[in-house]
Design goal:
The chain is an alpha+beta fold. The protein is built from three helices and seven strands, in the order H-E-E-H-E-H-E-E-E-E. The radius of gyration is 22 Å and the shape is globular.
Length: 164
């Protein structure tokens, strides 16, 4: 009869060689949330705004049609509270860096940030500041009035164009 330590010594190399391995190089792996990456000075930022007279400059959102076709990722911050103007600027900056760090360079083309957005976090309805990433640049006609009155306050939309 083999001793347990000898049996383990014989089986360990066999188990290790049968473990699944990835054929994707480390630089190609994509898992988890996008990593915010500092924007190079060569990036161009443009600020589309709605041009429909019925839309208030204080409250608007991307249309469902646009969002459903081009949404890449979104996250909520400041759930249940309204950030200060400085915090709003920080959220926009981080959202832009998250867009730049998303996928392959150029996959994310625009961001939208707004406060008091109704959303669900871990099964609970909350309002918070949302950062949405899109695969297409936003245009003035891509915006609509919010469904919930008073939501989508302080909206900011930015198109991001960086050389690859």
């Amino acid at each position: 009869m083999l001793s347990p330590s000898l049996l383990l010594a014989l089986l360990l190399p066999l188990l290790a060689s049968s473990a699944p391995t990835s054929t994707v190089p480390n630089s190609e792996k994509r898992a988890g949330a996008p990593i915010p990456t500092p924007l190079p000075s060569t990036c161009t930022l443009t600020y589309p705004a709605p041009q429909k007279p019925s839309l208030s400059s204080s409250y608007y959102q991307p249309s469902v049609k646009f969002a459903s076709k081009h949404s890449l990722y979104q996250y909520v911050t400041y759930a249940g509270e309204t950030p200060s103007p400085e915090q709003q600027d920080q959220v926009l900056h981080q959202c832009l860096e998250t867009c730049y760090g998303y996928g392959y360079k150029g996959d994310c083309r625009s961001v939208f940030v707004a406060d008091n957005v109704p959303t669900v976090v871990y099964g609970t309805e909350v309002t918070g500041t949302v950062c949405q990433l899109f695969s297409k640049a936003l245009r003035a006609g891509d915006f609509v009035a919010p469904v919930v009155e008073g939501s989508y306050g302080e909206p900011r939309a930015v198109d991001l164009s960086c050389p690859k």
